[in-house]
Amino acid sequence: MAIVLKDILESTKLEPAFCAALVGVSPGQFEDWLSGLEPLPRFVVPELASILGVPEEILSATSVGQHKAMAPGVLAPPVWYKLRDEKLTDADREMVGLVRKLGYYIDQLQSIRGLRIRTFEGVFTSIRSGVDKDAPPALQGQVAAERFRSLTAIQHGTTGGIGEWIRRTLRDLGVLVVESPIKSAIEGCTFTTGSDPARTPCIFANSYRTSWFRRNAILLHELGHAILDLESDQLALDFREGGQTALIELRAQTFAQGCLIPRSTLIRLVNKFGIDWTQLSARQLAQMVAHSHAEQSLLLKAAFDHQFIDEAQLDEYLRMDCEGLIREFSTHALSTREYMRTLAEQSPKWVAGNRNTCIGRRPLRLPSAYVGEVVAAFNSGEISLSKAAEMLMMDEAAFQSRFLSAVTCA
After folding, report:
1. Fewer CB within 10 A of the end CB, N or C, for the chain?
2. Does one domain contain both 60 and 170?
3. Long-range contacts from 114-117, C-beta under 8 angstroms, 24+ separation
4. What is the model's pTM?
């Protein structure tokens, strides 16, 4: 087991000390597992296997020899191959570990509370069946977007933007969603969590210095990967600097654009605001961003693709500064801190604060909805105090101190 775990860990390029923090044990204890001084406890296997992206039976093996004559590195989890690029930092790799741990806990909590939904299976299958894999990637993404809008509650956004419906629709499908600010070059990622065969797709959007409008696009881009790519790839990663040229990235981007800002939405915006594309003002552009729920660059890209504007106009309008004007039309243009202040009087204290934790040297702000579900599960007796603290990645004293007013017992 030690040989297997050590081989896997070396392939991920994750430091043992960070992995120890991920599973909540001391670095010395984890080193004992690596060296074989102590066996890997059975209760650790499911979580560690989910984070590392390997089957539980491989992680539970007593030696590499238990598997067929494996060459060096053969146990390398496929999920980590994309992170072995030297341009990526330890922070990027550890961010993926953090998000995968959080996804594991969210899936576990839904199972405990009887809230696990698998509607996505039928919807994803239906969308895939209607996409011709021999067609150009952009066309595949467009067709998938049209089918997704028609099959889900996302169509309720046909009178305007669908940003208010994205997260609700994903929850109704049973797709796990994580939005959290993590300082990393990774803007979003998609993976599955849980045990075979009931694995659940999890979508992450990095909210660090990003707007709500941008995250709408990130979530839909990652959803495109979840629908069209996760069957053959354990992990999809997207970076802030962009530049990805892979055909699957073009397909996911087209899917996001087709969901968020299709031609029909552009036409409605034109009619609503009396838009003359040849004389577009910054104020009109800000109105369209606010009502479409799509960031400026994506809205203009859609307008260009649908031939509402030419290349020169695209360049001109991209240079317009609309950030301040958007605030006049949408509270979603506020920063996260500003927006949380507007909720202060009607929300529990922990919605705006007390959600910060730390794994090793990596800080993490837990999603407010997830924190609320953990607290509710504890209050209802579905999980113990120790399990609630574990799921919020803090000790029991910190849980009681932070959420004393939200829990029913001291």
Report:
1. C
2. no
3. 116/174, 116/200, 117/171, 117/172, 117/173, 117/174
4. 0.88
